[in-house]
Amino acid sequence: MTSLADRIAKEKDKEEGTGTSQQAVKYLNQDYELLKQKSLQKGRLFEDAEFPANGRSLGYNELGPYSPKTRSVVWKRPTELCSDPKFIDDGATRTDICQGTLGDCWLLAAIASLTLDQRILARVVPPGQSFTEEYAGIFHFQFWQYGEWVDVVIDDRLPTKDGKLLFVHSAEGSEFWSALLEKAYAKVNGSYEALSGGNTIEGFEDFTGGIGEMYALNKPPPHLFQIMQKALKLGSLMGCSIDITSAYELEEITSDKLVKGHAYSVTGAEEVNCSGRKVQLVRVRNPWGKVEWTGSWSDGSREWTYISDDEKAKLNHVSEDGEFWMTYLDFIKHFTKLEICNLTPDPLESDGEGRWKHYQFEGMWIVGATAGGCRNHPATFTSNPQFVVRLDEVDDDPLDGQEKGCTFLVGLMQKDVRKLRELKKDMEPIGFAIYEVPEQYRGSGNVHLGPDVLLRQNSVAMSHTFMNTREICDRFTLPPGEYAIIPSTFRPHKRGKFVLRVFSEKQADTSPLEDKVVAEIDEDEISESDIDPHFKEIFKDIAGDDMEVSVFELMKILNNVVSHRADIKTDGFSLETCRTIISLLDKDESSKLGILEFHKLWLKIQRYLEIFKNHDKDNSGTMSSHEMRDAATEAGFQLNSAVLQVIVSRYADAQFAIDFDSFVGCLIKLEMLFRVFKALDNSESGKIELDIQQWLCLALF
After folding, report:
1. Which of 457, 483, 514 finishes a domain?
2. 638 and 554: one domain?
3. Residue 478 is part of which domain span?
4. What is the Cα–Cα distance from 467 to 463, expressed in whole angstroms?
5. pLDDT tens across 663-678, in order?
6. Whole-angstrom distance, CA of residue 419 vs CA of residue 423
7. CATH number of the domain that 692 lies in?
8. Cα separation values, 223 from 219, 230, 336, Å
9. What is residue 4's predicted lDDT score, i.e. its pLDDT?
10. Quick one: which of 66, 412, 414, 496 has the fewest CB in 10 Å?
């Protein structure tokens, strides 16, 4: 209950702007300014209890407490490592980032690209931090984490061996922004070891809030070089790597001095005039700060003698520093994949001209409710969360040979994947399908597409595969129209949290595709004269002389009735359910049911029994929780996924089946809640306000 309340509170905070780049969430509720001032007032350097300077922060396996790699590790502050430490010295540059013993070259490649635009860097590395002015041993950084920006506080104690930083460091050894940034990123992911292994695109996204694309360079799309040029001009971040076929090839150096299984950053793409012909060149950086390409156009190669000094200056041709140029043809020949992170207008605080339009939604796959799996599982597929995108404007500049259409990217990301490593939990294969919304439903977001729609048509597009990765992203160009995006795990009944993002070239309209929560529970008023005489006689025998049924008598009656039925399964009506029934129907607050009230109950139960049996598809005597949406609709309650998730957790059994007494109890509770809300919503605004006493009385009733 409290976790649900926390989630609702968080949703309200987001509506008010919390989690945006202008109002980052304070990670673990640590306020940088408050903690800094406390440390200054006490005259003591800050020590972070949330990410302590001990083995727990290093890792859990290879960097665990009993690993030989962590022996003799000493945590030291920069002031203990050199006489004049600098946070940033003469600007943050790509040469400030040299890899240590941690296998996070993917992250360092992303950090190197981050330095290419100082405005992006200032978002991740807030300015004004130093080891001199108001130094308190505390620093902070900001990252995009699964749909929101977070401000992460750390102390400046860093792991060392033999007096040297164990992980990332600057070439000079006196500049510490990159080492502290790595520590903050380790904190949000659980430990340093959690950063080992990954794709550069992950770092790109967490530094910008952008969305990543991946290209296989053995089959590059047409005009990829121009795509790279345009992306760099727009501030996009890019990385590349060479895949390995076995662990033995990891960090193996080729004859041309390229490192296999290693993440590089792409920092330039230019066309030069070489002896009268155009040559396409790509600039690449090795985050090691050394080991460079030795083929054509490498540092000092003869090709440089055939271009003008002006072009040399434009290309920033430099010496051994880990950065090098190579031809585009050599680039796609030697590297395996290219990753591009497309940015939103927000990170650069620009007017957004020429940038993608960005839309984002958070959701959950709840077992038994919204974890429907892929289309291979038709019985549950349509219970997955659904989102609609309305595309009206076609692209200004379609690719050669392509019909005019609307280009957009869809990215599906599962949350907290690195933190799962320590728990030895694998990521789920995830993906999505895109369907055209039927004409009768267009323009209305208050609908959840069911089997009658989704299972009777083919998808118009889908993710290229289902993959157990943090995010899967694909680019599509479709005709103007309205489309439903269905994100899912590959298999049903897999729990998870996700972020769905849509980036479109032109303005689009996106929203969750979800039923509006409403109820139709009006009933015909009847008098005692309308009741069948035989029913009256039965009631008199049941109720006794007082002609009223107490909660204990009601439980006995209902359980006696259902125990004689072989076509439904039930554990029996509980005292709590019977109290809920009486709370709904008891008009005179006697805590008992008179004949009119009991008659209404009897009619309800007869109707609910008919609905229950209609949705017991396999005649098992129970109803699948995935059928609850349609069953509730037939009973007069139109519910959305959030409400259904709560219903499943409250009323379904371990096999996510709902028996008859639970079904009746759920519908009775729903009716009572709708009636209470309607009675209190005098203005029909869809909102009510309660003080603490009113809230407690209603919640306990």
Report:
1. 514
2. yes
3. 356-514
4. 10
5. 999 998 898 888 888 8
6. 7
7. 1.10.238.10
8. 12, 11, 17
9. 56
10. 66
In terms of domains, do 293 and 192 share one? no
Structural domain contains residue 348: no
At 16 the pLDDT is 64
Evaluate whether residue 163 is within a structural domain: yes
| 460 found inside a domain | yes
Distance separating alpha carbons of residues 619 and 612, to the nearest angstrom: 10
Tokens of 427: 């990521």
Question: Domain containing 406 — which CATH number?
Answer: 2.60.120.380
Please give the mean pLDDT across all residues of the chain.
87
Both 119 and 238 in one domain: the answer is no
Locus of tokens 């041709």: 317
- Encoded tokens for 384: 């997955």
Q: Which domain CATH number covers 244? A: 3.90.70.10
Tokens 């799962």 belong to 420
Residue 99, amino acid: Q
* DSSP string covering 130-158: -SSTT--SEEEEEEEETTEEEEEEEES-E
Per-residue pLDDT band for 495 (boundaries 50, 70, 90) equals: very high
pLDDT at residue 368 is higher than 70: yes
The per-residue pLDDT for range 195-248, each reduced to its tens digit, is 988 888 898 899 999 999 989 999 998 889 988 987 887 778 888 999 887 767
CA angle 136, 140, 144 (to 5 degrees): 175
pLDDT digits (tens, 9 = 90+) for 71-81: 889 999 999 99
Highest mean pLDDT among 41-50, 215-224, 499-508, 527-536: 41-50
CA distances in angstroms from 318 to 169, 211, 299, 304, 312, listed in the order given:
21, 31, 7, 11, 9
Q: How would DSSP label each residue in 84-118?
A: S-BSSSSS--GGG-B--SSS-HHHHHHHHHHTT-H
Rounded Cα gap, residues 279 and 442, in angstroms: 50
Q: Is 626 a catalytic residue?
A: no
Cα–Cα nearest to 652, from 386, 366, 372, 373: 366
Q: What is the spatial distance between Cα 101 and Cα 162, in angstroms, rounded to a whole number?
A: 13
SS3 694: helix
The catalytically annotated residue of 140, 169, 274, 286 is 286
Asked if residue 625 and residue 504 are part of one domain, the reply reads no
Q: Give the span between the Cα atoms of 386 and 487, in whole angstroms.
A: 7
The answer to whether residues 475 and 392 touch, using CB atoms and an 8 Å cutoff, is: no
Does 2 map to a domain?
A: no
Predicted local confidence at residue 31, as pLDDT: 97
Q: Which is catalytic among the residues 105, 240, 274, 666?
A: 105
Look at the block and give the residue holding tokens 């030795």. Answer: 294
Which pair of structure tokens corresponds to residue 99?
């890899």
- Phi first, then psi, for residue 186 (nearest 5°) are -65, -35
Residue 371 and residue 497 share a domain: yes
Q: Are 517 and 643 in contact (CB under 8 A)?
A: yes
User: Distance (Å, rounded) from C-alpha 410 to C-alpha 361?
Assistant: 11
Q: Last residue of a domain, which of 200, 234, 250? A: 200
Q: What is the mean pLDDT of residues 417-441?
A: 89
Shared-domain flag, residues 310 and 375: no
**Mean pLDDT value of segment 24-30:** 95
Beta bridge partners of 142: 151
Distance, CA of 480 to chain centre: 27
Contact status, residue 70 vs residue 161, Cβ threshold 8 Å: no
* Structural domains in the chain (count): 4
Active-site residue identified among 140, 169, 262, 448: 262
Helix (H) or strand (E) segment spanning residue 644: helix 641-651
The DSSP call for residue 418 is: T
Residues 58-73: pLDDT tens digits? Answer: 998 888 888 888 888 9
363 lies in the same domain as 277? no
Annotation marks residue 262 as catalytic: yes
Tell me, yes or no, if 273 is annotated catalytic.
no
d(C-alpha 188, C-alpha 206), whole Å: 11
Residue 336 and residue 247 in one domain? yes
